[in-house]
Write a structure and sequence with these properties.
By secondary structure, this protein is mostly helical. The chain contains 23 helices and four strands. Keywords: Endoplasmic reticulum, Glycosyltransferase, Membrane, Transferase, Transmembrane, Transmembrane helix.
């Protein structure tokens, strides 16, 4: 393991590219115990099998946080909260195959997700300072969580501004003012009353000062570190890998098919196909152009045959030069299905979510399903309530459990060896 904890020394592997939040959380348990426990117990607590118990505790916490957030989102969207259904959604989320698999190992993904969702939940409750503290903790898990902190606080500031700018007597939804409408209303207000508009802006933005401070600290870290990446930067240089967004849409549509494959949604897609054939055709052609210009492969993707993405890339994308373009229409349909799944969310939420997803996926050269975890699960919690009937939730759970059984079986019972590392077992993983 990269962190070796005992009573004398801490060491850090410089090749690790993520912050040490998970290891610090482990140390918060190990170090106090080391003052009281025997050396033998401390050695056991530092064993990776014992350290993985931290993720087991985080799984229980995740169920509570997710169920609570799901109920709050339903209430904000005008639905009656159902604790049993919210708990079912939470169980489906924690059994999501990529998340569940990594949570059985000593990975940061689970605690990172819990911190991000808890911060978003606190922002929904207007607990801005507490949300900022949790968001800061999430940055110790993954640097790109700063994007989700900005997403959450941006929604809060937009809501405050929309409520403040709405004229009295307007019966519209105060939270559903589009970004363009908000900017136009601000401009008109500034032209008529510049001083009062500036004061209104300050009053609406200032409560978010903890997040502004967090953002300034993030910028300071990037300047001090010379970049956002820790450790081995040569393997994680930023590129404009635009097809990552297409992969995300396909990934989301496939895993959410128990929710999205229904008569209503299929009918809506067919209506779009009939009503906007030119728009969809241009979208598919644009997707082909983007795939041609901005597709990248990564040395890890081409060489590490432990990961399923290796086989997807080798057996599809590299089988023939044309195959990467064949999927373009499917990407467009997947994007349409994902958009329809959250069609009842506000315009600012949809725009903010898309921008945040682009920010956390597109700069990555490496195709890695773990990068899709947080955006997918945030989207999943905002899927329309009508799409989350008990039969669909049961089908989603069955899909997750089935995939988990297969991937865990492959991991445990189908090890293999590399020729250059004889005797060292390698295992299949996400």
């Amino acid at each position: 393991m990269p962190l070796l904890a005992d009573r004398r020394r801490l060491s850090w592997n410089p090749l690790i590219t993520t912050p040490p939040g998970l290891y610090l959380a482990s140390l918060a348990i190990i170090l106090p115990a080391s003052l009281l426990a025997s050396d033998q117990l401390v050695v056991w607590m530092c064993d990776v099998r014992a350290l993985r118990l931290l993720n087991s505790l985080a799984l229980a916490l995740a169920v509570i946080v997710i169920a609570r957030l799901q109920q709050r989102l339903w209430i904000l969207n005008g639905f009656r909260p159902e604790s049993a259904k919210a708990a079912a959604v939470a169980i489906n989320v924690v059994t999501f195959p990529v998340l569940f698999f990594t949570s059985t190992l000593y990975y940061t993904d689970l605690l990172s997700l819990v911190a991000v969702l808890l911060s978003l939940d606190m922002l929904k409750r207007q607990a801005v300072k507490s949300a900022a503290v949790v968001a800061a903790f999430s940055l110790l898990m993954r640097q790109t969580n700063i994007i989700w902190a900005a997403f959450g606080v941006g929604l809060l500031v937009h809501e405050r501004l929309a409520i403040a700018l709405r004229k009295k007597g307007d019966k519209g939804n105060k939270r559903d003012m589009s970004p363009w409408e908000l900017l136009w209303t601000l401009w008109e207000s500034f032209r008529a009353r510049p001083k009062s508009t500036v004061l209104l802006l300050v009053n609406c933005v200032w409560p978010a000062w903890p997040f502004i401070l967090l953002g300034m600290c993030g910028v300071g870290f990037v300047l001090w570190n010379g970049g956002i990446v820790l450790g081995d930067r040569t393997a994680h240089t930023a590129v404009f890998h635009a097809p990552q967004l297409f992969y995300f849409f396909a990934f989301s549509a496939l895993f959410a098919c128990p929710l999205l494959l229904n008569a209503t949604l299929i009918r809506q897609i067919l209506v779009h196909l009939r009503s906007h054939p030119l728009r969809l055709t241009l979208s598919a052609v644009s997707a082909v152009a983007v795939i041609h210009l901005f597709t990248y492969d990564h040395p890890y993707l081409l060489s590490d045959n432990r990961h399923y993405t290796f086989y997807i890339w080798r057996r599809w994308f590299m089988r023939h030069w044309s195959l990467k373009f064949v999927a373009a229409p499917a990407y467009v349909l997947a994007a349409l299905a994902v958009a329809i799944g959250v069609r009842k969310q506000s315009a600012v939420w949809r725009m903010g979510f898309l921008l945040a997803t682009i920010a956390v996926t597109v700069p990555n050269r490496l195709l890695e399903f773990r990068y899709f975890l947080i955006p997918y699960l945030i989207w999943r919690l905002h899927v329309d309530r009508q799409l989350q009937s008990w039969p669909r939730l049961a089908l989603e759970f069955f899909l997750h459990v089935s995939i988990n059984c297969v991937t865990l079986w492959m991991f445990l019972y189908r090890p293999f060896e590399w020729a250059h590392e004889p005797g060292a077992l390698q295992r299949f993983m996400w």
